[in-house]
Design goal:
This protein has 218 residues and is of the alpha+beta class. Helix content is 38%, strand content 23%. The chain binds zinc ion (ZN).
Length: 218
């Protein structure tokens, strides 16, 4: 398509330079999302101008930018200066961290809980930071498998511990509301590294702790 053709669709990614998304202002992001949501309402056969819907594109744009805040944050800011030198050779387990994320295949929510364990090697992380790490990686378009791995690898990188274990259990609305419509189905994913990967006793210890958690409903 030739340049300067005024008939080119506005506010689409087509034809935009690679990397240009990083330079968009918040207002530009809101405008692009608003147009897209108006188009969805129109394509559904409803009237984007009727009273109940007229402010929906604006509301949706604000909501989705807030939900997917992980795109606009720096992971180093998420943990700040909350890493401490500490001699402790036991296991640290933080259980049942609730999270909400968005499935990248259907742009529908998936949500559940995440449990993390690590065996320090001289460094520990402030307790409140692990939930922040989970929420940071959940705050972008995800698949559960990658979310689990992102969390595990991030902890590995910042703490260089002797092992990391991450367990994620989640409901997917794309599974519950469409397709096979399996309302009650939960998906579980696990990441192990270092000592957790090589030691079956440790693996089983971690999984036993988590199984206890499964008695608690989300
Ligand atoms: Zn999905």
């Amino acid at each position: 398509m030739s340049k300067g053709n005024s008939k080119e669709p506005e506010n689409t990614v087509d034809g935009k330079e690679k990397g240009i998304q990083e330079t968009l202002s918040l207002e530009q992001r809101v405008e692009i999302i608003k147009k897209s949501v108006e188009n969805i309402i129109y394509a559904l056969g409803d009237d984007p101008k009727r009273e109940g819907l007229v402010k929906t594109p604006q509301r949706y744009a604000k909501a989705i930018l807030e939900i997917l805040w992980g795109y606009f944050a720096d992971p180093d800011d998420v943990i700040g200066d909350a890493i401490f030198e500490q001699d402790y050779s036991g296991i640290v387990i933080v259980r049942h961290i609730k999270f909400f994320s968005m499935c990248e295949h259907h742009l529908l929510p998936f949500f559940g809980n995440c449990s993390i364990a690590y065996i320090p090697d001289g460094k520990i992380i402030g307790l409140s930071k692990l939930p922040r790490v989970v929420k940071f990686f959940a705050g972008r378009l995800q698949v559960q498998e990658r979310l689990t791995e992102d969390i595990g690898k991030f902890i590995e990188n910042v703490l260089k511990p002797r092992g990391v274990a991450v367990y994620v259990s989640a409901y997917h609305l794309c599974l519950a509301m469409r397709g096979v419509k399996k309302e009650g189905v939960k998906m579980d994913t696990v990441f192990f590294s270092g000592k957790f990967q090589n030691d079956d006793n440790l693996k089983n210890f971690f999984l036993k702790q988590i199984r206890e958690d499964r008695k608690i409903e989300i």
